[in-house]
Sequence to fold (268 residues):
Amino acid sequence: MTPSSGSGEVVFLDDFASGELDRSVWHVRVTGHVVNDEQQAYVDSPETVYVEPDGAGGHVLVLHARHRPGFVTADGQRFDFTSGRLDTRGTFECRYGTVEARMQLPEGAGLWPAFWMFGDGPWPDTGEIDVMEYAGEPDWVTCAAHGRGYSGEGALVNRAYFADGEAATGWHVYSVDWHPDELVFRVDGTLVYRVTRPMVDFFGPWGFDRDKFLIVNLAIGGTYPFKSNGKRTPHYGLDEAAVDTIDRGHARVLVDWVRVTGNGGGRS
Fold:
């Protein structure tokens, strides 16, 4: 589904209409340094990152987790899962505007997709905006802001619950309205959280006055989902049902489109 024009100038739009990943925009990242005890290796493979028809004349981006016990990375790290991560670092970066994506997420405790933004520089000083983060429990997603003095466990974060009859496994638009003095997070246009400069100033410096690039990924297990599901076996932060979901080929994140409007800058 191509997004409606909305308000403001569209400065970035990828609806994957060509049927292929635009590698002049998106970088497929490969695992090196691992954080948060995540259980997957990010690989550049048509198994894990591809574009497919959506059944309605368009296309969707797919991030597809795979169970690959004993997979070894180029630098010798060993993992039992592979998955995909994309970003626009060095190709598209923005400052302010509305950043949004229409996505469908898989169910499975410990499947950990996210749509987020980061800038060049050390974490967390450069500021991280988590437009959508999900631990595989279909009744809720989170949004968050990280910076120096309010990162990790101390991040400014909110959990947004879906109404009865809805779930993260359906199609939803996740967005942030990024202003010089506030971040306004929405799900399907409904306000779910607002982070203001005074809220941030109480903890540390405002980290949202510099350019950031877009990131979409599907992590597997790790500390963030562990905090919700408490699973240590069969994998840290990942339960048996989620492993079965991966084995059956259903651990897929679908992205219909990604768009930035308003005073969002442009391609660098």
About this structure: The chain has one domain: 10-267. Residues 240-247 form the longest helix (8 residues).
